[in-house]
Amino acid sequence: MSSHYEAPIRKPLVIGEKSYHDITVDVARPVEGRANKLWWTVFTIALVAFLWGVASMAYTIGTGIGTWGLNKTIGWAWDITNFVWWVGIGHAGTLISAVLLLFRQKWRMAINRSAEAMTIFSVVQAGLFPIIHMGRPWLAYWVLPIPNQFGSLWVNFNSPLLWDVFAISTYLSVSLVFWWTGLLPDFAMLRDRAITPFTKRVYSILSFGWSGRVKDWQRFEEVSLVLAGLATPLVLSVHTIVSFDFATSVIPGWHTTIFPPYFVAGAVFSGFAMVNTLLIIMRKVSNLEDYITIQHIELMNMICMITGSIVGVAYITELWVAWYSGVEYEQYAFLNRASGPYWWSYWLMMTCNVISPQVMWIKKIRTNIMASFIISLVINVGMWFERFVIIVTSLHRDYLPSSWTMFQPTFVDAGIYVGTIGFFFVLFLLYSRSFPVIAQAEVKTILKSSGEFYKKARDNKENHQSLNH
Amino acid sequence: MRTIYKIAALVGVSVLTTSCFNKERPNYQFMPNMYESVAYETYSESPAFKNGKEGQLPAEGSIPRGFTPEAYPNTTEGLEQARANLKSPLAENEKDLEKGKELYAIYCSVCHGAKGDGKGNLVKREKFLGVPDYKDRELTEGGIYHVITYGLNAMGSHANQLTQHERWLVTDYVLKLKSE
Predict the structure, then answer these.
(1) What's the number of domains chain A is made of?
(2) pLDDT tens column, A126-156
(3) Is the ipTM of this complex over 0.90?
(4) Which residues form the Cytochrome c domain (chain B) (predicted)?
(5) Domains and CATH numbers, chain B
(6) Would you call B1 an interface residue with chain A, using a CB distance cutoff of 8 Å?
(7) Is A305 in contact with A360 (CB distance < 8 Å)?
(8) For residues A125 and A49, is the Cβ–Cβ distance under 8 A?
(9) How far is the C-alpha of B89 from the C-alpha of B95, rounded, in Å?
(10) Distance (Å, rounded) from C-alpha A321 to C-alpha A43?
(11) The pTM is what?
(12) Whole-number Cα distances in Å, A148 to A152, A171, B32
């Protein structure tokens, strides 16, 4: 301990006089306890929303896409808006677990498990949209290059929509593997604590016989690092590919080279906001305030602020380039966004995405839980509108004025969106009651370096030995 | 032992998934969205028509574009007149003995024989008799055309199989056979 150097400026990441056992107990408590009434209430609401979404999807597939508000000019609206929104939300999870791992950020350890769960659950939601927005979803398997009896008819690899298939499916599978390997020691912990034979059986299956030997841990760390190294380019490329859906088109307002980084920044922005939303609630209801501290929230707010500023710069860049380009279509596209029939969505987006993260410069706000929670919701609304604005305002007025039109969503559009939110929360609520929501194995590795109790003990000791040091 | 189980399972699944196919019926289809025609297809059956057939007769007396009604009626007098007066409308450059030979081989030689000697396959096998040799008959191009168009005695009309132009080509070829 005395040989350990840790800058005194660093604030503790684990609050209170915690031992390893305390961490175990705190993490296992929500899993081992019984769900309370509040959980059941929220779960029921989420389930009802989910079922409503299932009904809307069944109605769409059974009756046709015409049940949506799309028209011949606007072939993409809420479907792809929600798709990009959900994919974007998913990105924070990978960013937290992979990029922050590469940057050796210890504060990620308390939040990475839930962030990754959020990734997986939101990518699942996103993955629904490419299927259900198809006119003939039962032929969706045609997007896969499978040898077949049509003279081995294959897909065209030039379409970003096909890249989406590869991007999203790879992203989901890598995230799932990354998440699950991280879960092994924690499942093993639950397995070893299990009292009933049923839970014992379940967690011994889930933990894959993890026994925590030195060799296992060594390889575990290596795998984590390699997966983090793989997931980082993945997280950047996935949303880049999603942005290619628009950037590779010829539509004024879509055909922009700024989209790949700008979409990724927006994804991280909205994803961190969602993590904040979820964790602010979770730390309260699962009594994890000692692990998900105000410092975690502050750091997430800072990332929101940084990525929000990147997004802001991107907005200004787009506007500047539109003016600088001298292309009247491009200029009109942005004029239409600001002052056309969808002006409200543009200004709502601008307010939510540009102004709200800027208040995070004020320490009082970014360290205020209530303010963080509200802003995180505002950001998610704003980011939904960003995708809506990009998609709909670019489509509803482009080259031919005779093709100008408006978009009006139907209750089916809304029902599917609500359904995915419900589905997301169904999954997340089930997760939070059956999975260790904090990577206890990882938090235990920082307890002695970043725990409040140990930090104080070290400070006291160093004060005594200050002459030697 | 495990491998045997696996193989057995695989065989079982393949038998299950393929055994439902009955060779005497059309096979099962996956989502036949546009397999069945919405429009009326030629030769299809449909209750929309009185006799249930898609092929309805045109109104009598109507003349389709590119078609000239036959000049001589389907009667003995018509045949006589055609023999005497009907001439081939084909110009010299339109005559095509090769094409005529092909058509003759398809529609005529099974009875009349490849050489026009009345010794076609059906005659040789004695399915029926009484097909004359072209050389024994007085033939004019108008008469040949008339016979192909309407038939004569045991011979049926070939107007269904051959267009007017093709009938003249065959007529030419028949005259050539006779001259040989």
Answers:
(1) 1
(2) 999 999 999 999 999 999 999 999 998 999 9
(3) no
(4) 95-178
(5) 76-179 (1.10.760.10)
(6) no
(7) yes
(8) no
(9) 10
(10) 47
(11) 0.88
(12) 5, 26, 17
